[in-house]
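Quick one:
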Amino acid sequence: MSEAPTLDYEHRFRSSGARLLAGIDEVGRGALAGPVSVGIAVIDLYQQKLLADVRDSKLLKVADRERLVPLVKGWSVASAVGHASANEIDALGIIAALRLAGTRAWLAVLAAGVTPDVVLLDGSHNWLSPETQPSLFDDGPVEPGCDAPVHTLVKADMQCLSVAAASILAKVERDGMMRELHTQFPAFGWDENKGYGTAAHKNALRAAGPTPYHRVSWQLLAD
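Output:
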């Protein structure tokens, strides 16, 4: 198994006066079908202990990820997963859809009575901070989202325990959604490929065309 992530990087934020840190990661960004999902795991920088066996979700077996979900939820000060649908991705674009999914997760954390002081986001680009974006409906812009300082770190899911924990929550919840959708459209193999562009998935697309859960604004059959 890979080297275990720690809280060493997160603890650097104590010097700025932060106490509650939200580790955030996304899954499903590169899929052809299904939602993009964003997980949040909030930790107390002065209280949290290490949590055994947690790794970036991509490095764990299915059974291990699912076993860890209740442990991560119990370990976190607060946690949530937000989603943006394929239709929302088509309407808004992937970056705005990531922001929308992240905003939904962020608002769920706030609704639980927890307000993080700082965010640690996996990657090199801050797609989470609010921007004015069109609503899918006729009621104006989407609700304001994360207003805490956002810090990005490439491969944070590999080295930072809070972000690895968030990746597990997002991955397990999204995978469960794709398994449910597989029962409606079994030809696409979403129970296995989770909406990503495998050869079998693309062959099914050529034969049957897209479903309502495909991101039709994308070049679905591009190599």
